[in-house]
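User: Second chain of the day. Same drill as before.
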Amino acid sequence: MTKCGMQVSTVLICGNPMLREGLKHILSGTRFCISLEEQFGKDRDLGLPEETMPALFVIDANHDQNRLIDTVQNLKERYPVGKIVVLANQFDLDNMRAILAAGADGYCLATLECAALIKSLELVMLGEIIFPSGLFLSAISKLSKRLEPLVIEQIRPIPKLLQSDRKTRMLSSREAEILRCLMHGAPNKVIARELDVAEATVKVHVKAILRKIQVSNRTQAAIWAAEHFAAPTIKDESLLQTRS
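Assistant: Same format as last time:
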């Protein structure tokens, strides 16, 4: 973990000259020292020795969107200790989820104030996952209101967890049900109504789930669930339909 005050070797991957110069100006005088500027989308190793391994990559999301996910994944494979922050011109929920799932540590808007951007980079270096929480919650709220009946349908049947690691075995059946709901973006009140429990009970279970699977928030839990749930078999679906 990078200690506060230490210089952070920073690589800008940005094809927009104005944005690149703006970032250089914002970061000047901070501990984020630009060590290299790479044109966005070049599919090659940066060729840096281990002792000068970049600590932070800042990527312009808008120059080559078709290759953005591949770029994030490739950087994470080559520089697993390095942190990755993607800058986007506008908020897109699906795009943000895909970028974070690919291994990025932060998703920020290029419209952030200078101080807010620097603070976001500092939090990323401390191990936090950064994204526009206000816009995320607003998008989830609008989506859940519009698709609430579909969300309720999607959380049935409840698939089995893949028993592939210790974390999945630690979850109770109720926690697995709630985790499945989180994967589909259901808010606590919808989960409570669907499972016929109090909303406060759902909150307690969600807190326990985050602790057990060692993630920080509902978004990370949803991504984790997508990787660890097994699709229900025809037999499972028949059983659940019979019960209902």
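The chain has eleven helices and five strands.

User: Great, on to the next one.
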